[in-house]
Design brief:
Number of helices: 18
Strand content: 5-15%
Structural class: alpha/beta
Number of strands: 12
Helix content: 40-55%
Distance between the termini: 30 Å
Oligomer: single chain
Bound molecules: iron/sulfur cluster
Length: 474
């Protein structure tokens, strides 16, 4: 049975709390210490009130969401706040509160170019030297359409290396400059961030780079090449100097999971280097040299889950695990789900998610047949993914042991379901690795086995912590 809009957390039009929040963001970024104290004063009583109103099986989920919000706020204030950044964030919040219709995607991920200056051995995007790239006019049109049709004001730019992207003499920073009412999160290896680039980022004011590291020096150099760690630190120095808020992009694998969020790493990057946030992704065997055995094991995955919540709850450091923290987003957010997203790559192929590299449509084809972005939401694959999400707890009244949002991902955690959707809807692989996956019984068996082992590992935690709310602080 569908929940009411307020219960599942969809935004309402013209809601005054968003306007108040937007104003608070501007003032707080100009006065971070006062902002932090004010937030504590407001949030703590509100938090208990909100939690008391939830049914027992929603309490821990709301507790997660509020803890993430607190960590995000504190992280933002730690990241050299400027009034300029506050104003951009205010515009984003105000636009959402005034215009976002329920039911539309909340952001887009765009990979404008495949080219990259590095060759990491297991790159999820299988980046290359060739300049496969979206035409700048198409890129710009995507952003305009997303703004007009869905009021989207938040875009994630990834790659390849986004700073390598050029088309018609323009790059990612031109896109930021031309869309000052939007916020851009850019995943980058950081190698191309020199003084001039950092100053340009500060000047446009609406971009935050998430720089990739694999852990400390040894791990980062081992995956990204000798000297990679020093180049990242040099980029961070320039961003500090120019006043660009930055975060980290982490890839957890079976090799680095046990040390990725250890004290040495956290103290170095969050205290000393003053990174504002980190997004943590798990190695996805869909890019160069795919190897399911390199994914973090289910046990490693749950240790990372525990550690990331410890950092967010106790130290207010925003470290978000893109998969296991699916409780915060009520499960998978792909396929253009309300408040969720979809991904567009350098060839124009449109997939439910960057980690689900099977395309339902191509934006160049859509535009040449006078269509628009909304056409993709009606494609069989996107419909199938959204139906799967609803069958897996999203918008459902009752959560069950089977709709476990600690393993929310159709393609990583429920591979047979994803394979069935891909085959049934005629979606096409966007690259050679996802193409090979469709042919390899060994790959399919390993992915299915991973899902089975993960289910055995998370089931008790899901049931006791979330469904019975037995241990809200664990
Ligand atoms: S498909 Fe998987 S990785 Fe992508 S949003 Fe859904 S859960 Fe996350």
């Amino acid at each position: 049975m569908p929940l009411t809009r307020s219960r599942i957390g969809l935004r309402r039009k013209k809601s005054w709390p968003f306007r108040v929040l937007g104003r608070a963001v501007i003032e707080a970024t100009a006065h971070p210490e006062a902002g932090s104290r004010l937030f504590d004063l407001l949030l703590l009583p509100m938090r208990s009130l909100i939690l008391r109103q939830q049914p027992p099986d929603r309490r821990r989920i709301w507790d997660d969401a509020l803890s993430l919000l607190t960590a995000m706020w504190t992280s933002m204030l730690r990241a050299w706040p400027t009034r300029r950044m506050g104003e951009v964030l205010h515009d984003v919040v105000a636009t959402y509160s005034d215009t976002v219709p329920g039911g539309s995607p909340g952001f887009l991920v765009i990979s404008p170019g495949k080219a990259c200056n590095l060759r990491c051995p297991d790159c999820y995007a299988n980046s290359a030297t060739e300049m496969n790239a979206l035409d700048y006019e198409v890129l710009s049109r995507i952003v305009q359409e997303a703004k007009e049709k869905w009021s989207i004001r938040f875009f994630t730019v990834t790659g390849g290396e986004p700073l390598f992207y050029r088309s018609k003499g323009k790059g990612v920073l031109d896109l930021c400059a031309e869309n000052q009412d939007c916020m851009f999160l850019m995943y980058t290896n950081g190698f191309l961030i020199n003084r001039k680039v950092a100053e340009s980022m500060a000047e446009v004011g609406n971009i935050t780079p998430a720089v990739s590291v694999e852990g400390m020096r040894e791990r980062t150099d081992a995956r990204r090449g000798q000297g990679a760690f020093d180049k990242v630190l040099a980029a961070i120095r320039e961003m500090h100097r120019a006043g660009v808020p930055f975060g980290l992009s982490l890839t957890a694998s079976s090799r680095n999971s046990d040390e990725l969020l250890d004290d040495e790493f956290v103290d170095f990057f969050f205290r000393k280097q003053r990174a504002a946030y980190a997004w943590m992704f798990h190695y996805m065997p869909m890019g160069r040299n795919p190897d399911p055995d390199s994914m973090p094991t289910p046990e490693q995955r749950m240790r990372l889950w525990k550690r990331s919540w410890e950092l967010m709850r106790e130290r207010r450091i925003m470290v978000v695990d893109f998969w296991t923290e699916g409780t915060v987003s009520f499960g998978c957010i792909s396929g253009g789900r309300p408040g969720g997203y979809f991904a567009i790559d350098w060839n124009g192929d449109i997939s439910p998610c960057v980690f689900f590299p099977y395309a339902a449509a191509n934006i160049n084809d859509i535009y040449s047949s006078r269509g628009s972005l909304t056409d993709v939401l009606k494609t069989p694959l996107f419909r199938a993914v959204r139906e799967w999400q609803e069958g897996y707890g999203y918008r459902q009244k009752d959560l069950t042991p089977e709709t476990d949002w600690l393993r929310p991902c159709p393609i990583r955690d429920h591979y047979p379901d994803a394979l069935e959707m891909i085959r049934r809807t005629g979606a096409w692989p966007t690259d050679s690795a996802p193409e090979g996956a469709l042919e390899s019984l060994e790959y399919q068996e390993k992915m299915s086995d991973y899902g089975r082992r993960l289910a055995e590992t998370t089931r008790d935690i899901w049931c006791s912590c979330y469904l019975r709310n037995s241990s809200p602080k664990s």
